Recover the amino acids of this structure.
């Protein structure tokens, strides 16, 4: 539902358009390319709030930076109000997750930064900055420094700094994720009120988020990205009157629908993504290419125990997220890990424990370790390969560098390290192998079982 004046809506040219964009980064030593975004098409039109919703690895923030002209796409085109973008986009302003304030400047000086960069005179920029500070509710704090402000107040400064330049599109990169729950909720409500008031300083808003309720509450359209690499899966229109009431049954159904979409990567949406081009490279059969979800063994165990204790084997994902006060982006890797190990299945937004998952959740510590090890050797190829490789060594020991180098052929350096650390955590929990962090060396545990063949 739009809030912009009819005259502003007469122009149908998108304010920002991404056409067939891809983004890849080179691996260290030029071994290969790591694709973050693949053939993306996105538009932001006048008078709408658009949310980019996706889990970790979907490239949400990378896409936002390409649209802002902060980094170039590897291929494809970005248009700003119909014109090709070749550098920083002058029509957008961004609010970051980390506040990004200059600590040696006062509130009013931080807000004036964008205007000063655009050559606005002192008198005019002070006048406009004071108006922006008033708009975000920071009257009386104009001369305060960032260290004197709470997290919520610092983010208000970030909003004022972006809005003071009156951008055509306001970009929000997970602006509430670094705040406590109550402060974040307060700022969301105030942003929604400002937009619905009809005199918002920007013509459109583009919000990057992993928070499903936030997307439904603020947006007119929710664009869902798949992960690894990021692809557009489709979009969900929020066709309920503003302000979006959380108690409205339609709101609840949209949230449940998006939970189901986010937990089922193959689920079709209104506008499913185009199939991959023919002739592409076949997925690698190497065990190192089968990525582990970044979830600790203790988190997997604790989650399954919670489901057993409260819901006797099944629980709606939305209720689980609410009960744990855990954002969906933090919850999904744990569920992915439980599903990989065949402890649970996630379908249509409902988590159901398998028979072995219930056994694992209710077993003694020794029994749970045995079950975890068995499932990891069968279903987690990286863990199984590390175990089997150590078995082949006479002393059952190898340096971590060996495995990190192999993982580096499939992942960027940081991701390769995270894959290794997750594998170490799982193997330690299952008592398959041990890790000496001082020596950076893996050693087979004394009681490790015989290796299991991996498909």
């Amino acid at each position: 539902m739009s809030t912009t004046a009819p005259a502003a809506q007469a122009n149908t040219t998108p304010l920002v358009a991404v056409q067939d964009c891809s983004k890849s980064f080179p691996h260290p030593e030029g071994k290969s390319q790591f694709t973050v975004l693949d053939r993306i098409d996105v538009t932001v039109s006048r008078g709408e709030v658009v949310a980019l919703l996706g889990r970790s690895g979907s490239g949400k923030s990378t896409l936002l930076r390409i649209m802002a002209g902060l980094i170039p796409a590897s291929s494809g085109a970005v248009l700003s109000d119909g014109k090709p973008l070749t550098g920083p986009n002058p029509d957008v302003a961004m609010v970051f997750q980390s506040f990004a304030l200059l600590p040696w400047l006062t509130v009013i000086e931080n807000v004036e930064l964008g205007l000063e960069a655009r050559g606005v005179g002192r008198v005019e920029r002070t006048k406009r900055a004071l108006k922006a500070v008033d708009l975000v509710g920071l009257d009386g704090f104009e001369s305060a420094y960032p260290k004197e402000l709470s997290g919520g107040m610092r983010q208000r400064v970030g909003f004022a700094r972006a809005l003071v330049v009156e951008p055509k599109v306001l970009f929000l990169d997970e602006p509430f994720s670094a705040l406590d729950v109550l402060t974040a909720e307060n700022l969301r409500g105030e942003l929604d009120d400002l937009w619905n008031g009809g005199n918002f300083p920007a013509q459109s808003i583009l919000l990057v988020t992993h928070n499903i309720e936030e997307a439904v509450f603020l947006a007119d359209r929710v664009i869902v990205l798949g992960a690894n690499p990021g692809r557009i899966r489709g979009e969900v229109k929020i066709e309920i009157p503003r302000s979006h009431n959380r108690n409205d049954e339609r709101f609840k159904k949209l949230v449940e629908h998006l939970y189901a979409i986010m937990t089922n990567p193959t689920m079709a949406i209104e506008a499913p993504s185009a199939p991959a081009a023919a002739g592409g490279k076949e997925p690698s059969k190497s065990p190192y290419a089968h990525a582990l979800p970044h979830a600790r063994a203790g988190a997997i165990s604790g989650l399954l125990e919670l489901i057993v204790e409260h819901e006797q084997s099944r629980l709606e994902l939305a209720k689980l997220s609410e009960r744990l006060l855990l954002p969906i982006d933090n919850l999904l890797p744990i569920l992915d890990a439980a599903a990989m190990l065949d402890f649970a299945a996630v379908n249509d937004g409902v988590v159901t424990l398998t028979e072995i998952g219930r056994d694992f959740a209710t077993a003694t510590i020794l029994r749970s370790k045995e079950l975890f090890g068995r499932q990891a050797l069968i279903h987690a190829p990286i863990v199984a390969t590390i175990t089997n490789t150590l078995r082949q060594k006479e002393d059952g020991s190898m340096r971590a560098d060996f495995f990190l180098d192999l993982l580096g052929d499939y992942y960027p350096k940081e991701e390769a390290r995270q894959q290794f650390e997750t594998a170490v955590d799982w193997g330690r929990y299952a008592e398959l192998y041990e890790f000496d962090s001082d020596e950076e060396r893996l050693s087979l545990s004394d009681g490790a079982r015989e290796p299991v063949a991996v498909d």
